[in-house]
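Entries read chain and fold; for instance:
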Amino acid sequence: MAAKETRVALIGVGTIGLSLAALHLMHLPSGSHLTIVDVRTDLQTYVKQNLPQYLPEQFHSRISDIRLTSSVAEAVQNSTIIQESGPENLGFKTKLWEEVEQHAPADAIFWTSTSGIPASQQNVKLKDKSRLVVVHPFNPPHILPLLEIVPSPDTSQEVIQQTLEFWWSRGREPILLGREVTGFVAGRLAWALLREAIHLVDQKVVTVAQLDRILETSMGPRWAYAGPFKSFHTGGGPGGLEALFKNVGGTVQKCWDEGGKVNVGDGWEEDVFRQTREVYGVPDLGERDRANRRILEVVEEEKRR
């Protein structure tokens, strides 16, 4: 029997949804294999105007063939994969998956692009909880290869394997996490760094602009090539990470002890948000995408030498 044709339904086309649409569009046989569902009243104009900036020019012609709808039932009825990138709201997601299950084919698999809500919380209204798995991309997913695959205890091994194989075949880097944890791994690392950054700005140690330049001229380039364990292992010389901690472990512990204790709503927001707006204005997604592509290309070239 021939393999079933892949048809993807994307629910929600904010920043992540548009990026995922571009990623899918570059690998599907045609735009007609992709359905986008969103409640925007200007959905057609929005997609036509914004999606091209995420795509190489040779794929622009496929955009006109994408199926667009405001109906979840219509979007999922013939889909093999349903991927949602809707609001980060548990009530919304549990209600959405209940509706999706009512109308999707029995063998379709469900992916949530949530930034931190575990699948075991989202699947509570599903009759078949084995179909849902977190596929957490790192923004922008049409460029950055990471996808954190986070099953719930109910997710079937078949769904996990299908998900991994799907992304491997597209040249991505799906990482299967050992268990559920709020925020997953990439998010927890990113938010931990941001929390310390906010603390340092709030304490007037540095400005927003200075903090970013410090990272861009130190850990940024280093971490583009190697993660923290490999980086600090190298920093320890021949003795590796263990030697590094023997040398600077006391300082490391003091930094950990004095780490930023800021919380959302503590009052730092007004000043930090103001500085960020003044320094960067409206985010330049084109610059971000070009820089990310070039960095990844250089790192891959160096690793192949």
